[in-house]
Design brief:
This protein has 11 helices and 18 strands. The protein is an alpha/beta fold and 490 residues long. The strands form 4 sheets. It has an 8-stranded mixed beta sheet with strand order 2-3-5-4-6-9-7-8, sandwiched between helices. A 5-stranded mixed beta sheet has the order 1-16-13-12-18, with no helix packed on it. Strands 15-14-17 form a 3-stranded antiparallel beta sheet. The protein starts with 23 loop residues before the first strand and ends with a strand. The chain binds zinc ion.
Length: 490
C-alpha cells in the first residue's frame, strides 16, 4: 500500500521530542512532503488525565461498550462465594488428600473443574476445560512423588495465526510449616482471591469471541515450588505456543494491611522484570551494545496494562514495580519468564504478614491466618476488572509486531547517522489497519510520542537512534492497539 492510513484518533499533537515527519516508507521512500505530513497528522494524542499517580503513555485506550458491560458484570458477591467455598475445603495443601470428597486439594480441584465447565457451557464450544496432571518427583518441599493437577479453560481465538494470553491464580494453600498438609490452611487471600478472579473472568469471557486465545488457568503446587505453572509453561513452550502475555494473580484479596498503614483500595501492584530472566549470553551482548534494560517484553506488557486498564471503568490505578517480584520472592509468572514469555504479577498494594502462610490461631488477642474476614471482595472485583480490561484488550486487538529491527545500513539516499530506519514483518490480523512507531527519551518510564506510519513495513525517521528509544505497535480498524515491540539489531 502507498497510502498512509489515519489510525490514531484525536487531533494532532506535535511534541518537542519528535516534531517528526516520516522521511520514507517501503513504498514511498523519497515521497512527497504531503505524504509525510499526512503521516504526521495521524499521530495519537496523549491520554486523558487519569486517576491515580501512575504515568500513562500515549496508548491510553478507553474501554468500548462491550468491554464496559463485561466489567460492570464482575460480581463481588460471586467472588466472595468462590473464596468462601475454597476455604471450606479446609486445606488445599499440595500434599493433602486427592480423594476425600470434602477436604483437601482433590475436592477443591474437582470443584474448580466443575465451575470452569459451567462457564464453558456458555461458549458455544469455543471454551474447553482440561485437567493437566503430572507427577512431581520428590524434592525439598515434596517428600514423596506427588500428582499435581492444573485446571485449564481455553477460549480458542479466531486469528489465522494463534496467539495466546494466559491468566493464573494458584489453588494450593499453606500454613507456617510448608510441609504441614493436615491443619486448616484457608488461603483466602493467598490465593483464593486469584482463583476467584480467574473463575469470574472465565465465566464473563466465555460468551465472547476474540482473535486471540485466552487461557484461564488455576494452577497448583505454587507454594511447594511453582510446580504447576512450571509444567504449564514448559508444555506451552514445547508445543510452540505463542504466549504474548501472561499474568499471575497472587494475593489480590485486600487493599488494607489491617496493621495501621493507610489502605490503598484503588491500587494494585504489578511486578515486572526488565532484563529478561531467559536472556541468553548472545542477547546480553546485543543489549549491552544497544541498550534496552528497561525494554524487555514484560515491561512493554506492563505499559500496555496501564494504558488499557487504568480508567473510570476499572476505577483502579496500577502501581508498576520494576522488579520481577517482591524482594526475594516469586510467583507463577516466573515460570513463564523462564520459558521466555512476557509475564508479570498482580498483587495487592499492602500486605499483612499475620495473614500470609500462618497457622490459624489467636495470639495475645491477635487473629493470625489467611481468613476470608480479611478479604475485601469489592477490591477483588476491581482487580478482576483490571485483569479483564487488559486481557480483553490483548485478545481483541492485534498481535504484537514481529521481526522488528533497526536497520544499521540506511536505505539509499539516507546515509549518515542522524536517521533511523525501522523494518518489521506485516502481521496477518484480519482487521489490521497499520502501525504506529512510538518513541520516548531513554529516561522516560512510558512511551511519550506516537507516529502513525500507515500499513507499511519500513520507515525512515530523521532521529538519531543513539538518543531515544523506538517501539512499534499494530493498530486495527477499530483503533485497538497491540503491545509495543522493541527492536533488535537488523
Ligand atoms: Zn501465593
Amino acid at each position: 500500500m502507498t497510502e498512509h492510513e489515519s489510525t490514531g484518533p484525536g487531533p494532532t499533537r506535535r511534541q518537542a521530542l519528535t516534531g517528526v515527519a516520516v522521511l520514507g516508507t517501503a513504498a514511498t521512500l523519497g515521497g512527497t512532503a504531503a505524504q509525510a505530513a499526512a503521516a504526521d497528522s495521524a499521530g495519537t494524542t496523549a491520554g486523558a488525565p487519569g486517576i491515580g499517580q501512575s504515568p500513562i503513555g500515549v496508548g491510553r485506550q478507553v474501554p468500548d461498550r462491550a468491554l464496559r458491560e463485561l466489567l460492570a458484570h464482575v460480581d463481588p458477591a460471586r467472588l466472595e462465594a468462590t473464596v468462601r467455598k475454597l476455604v471450606s475445603f479446609g486445606t488445599r495443601h499440595t500434599l493433602s488428600s486427592q480423594t476425600d470428597p470434602a477436604r483437601g486439594i482433590g475436592a477443591a480441584t474437582d470443584w474448580v473443574f466443575a465451575q470452569l465447565q459451567a462457564a464453558a457451557a456458555a461458549s458455544g464450544g469455543r471454551m474447553t476445560v482440561e485437567r493437566q496432571s503430572f507427577v512431581q518427583p520428590a524434592g525439598p518441599r515434596i517428600p514423596v512423588p506427588t500428582t499435581i493437577t492444573n485446571v485449564i479453560a481455553t477460549l480458542r481465538g479466531t486469528a489465522a495465526t494463534e496467539r495466546v494470553y494466559v491468566v493464573t491464580g494458584h489453588l494450593d494453600s499453606r500454613v507456617t510449616d510448608v510441609l504441614n498438609f493436615t491443619d486448616d490452611a484457608p488461603g483466602a487471600d493467598d490465593d483464593g482471591s486469584g482463583v476467584a478472579a480467574v473463575l469470574e473472568m472465565a465465566r464473563l469471557f466465555a460468551p465472547h469471541s476474540f482473535p486471540g486465545t485466552l487461557v484461564f488457568a488455576v494452577v497448583a503446587g505454587e507454594e511447594q515450588g511453582l510446580f504447576g505453572s512450571a509444567f504449564l509453561a514448559a508444555q506451552m513452550k514445547s508445543a510452540g505456543t505463542d504466549v504474548q502475555g501472561m499474568f499471575s494473580n497472587d494475593i489480590v484479596g485486600a487493599s488494607s494491611a489491617w496493621d495501621g498503614t493507610a489502605p490503598d483500595p484503588h491500587t494494585v501492584r504489578l511486578f515486572v522484570e526488565g532484563v529478561p530472566t531467559s536472556e541468553t549470553p548472545a542477547q546480553t551482548a546485543v543489549r549491552q551494545s544497544v541498550g534496552g534494560e528497561n525494554d524487555g517484553p514484560s515491561r512493554q506488557l506492563a505499559r500496555f496494562a496501564q494504558d488499557v486498564a487504568v480508567n473510570d471503568a476499572t476505577d483502579m490505578d496500577i502501581r508498576v514495580v520494576w522488579r520481577r517480584d517482591r524482594y526475594l520472592r516469586g510467583s507463577d509468572h516466573v515460570s513463564f519468564l523462564q520459558q521466555g514469555y512476557p509475564a508479570a504479577r498482580f498483587t495487592e498494594p499492602r500486605e499483612n504478614f499475620d495473614h500470609e502462610h500462618q497457622d490459624v490461631r489467636v495470639e495475645n488477642g491477635v487473629q493470625f491466618g489467611d481468613l476470608p474476614q480479611f478479604c475485601d471482595f469489592r477490591y477483588i472485583a476491581r482487580v478482576t476488572r483490571v485483569n479483564a480490561a487488559t486481557l480483553w484488550s490483548l485478545a481483541a486487538g492485534p498481535g504484537t509486531p514481529k521481526g522488528f529491527v533497526i536497520l544499521t545500513t540506511p536505505p539509499p539516499g539516507f546515509s549518515g547517522i542522524n536517521t533511523t530506519t525501522l523494518k518489521w514483518t506485516r502481521g496477518d490480523d484480519a482487521g489490521l489497519a497499520g502501525y504506529e512507531v512510538v518513541l520516548r527519551e531513554t529516561t522516560s518510564p512510558v512511551w511519550t510520542e506516537a507516529l502513525a506510519v500507515g500499513d507499511v513495513t519500513t520507515v525512515t525517521l530523521p532521529i538519531a537512534k543513539d538518543n531515544v528509544q523506538f517501539g512499534l505497535r499494530a493498530v486495527d480498524v477499530a483503533g485497538l492497539r497491540s503491545p509495543v515491540a522493541f527492536p533488535t539489531v537488523g
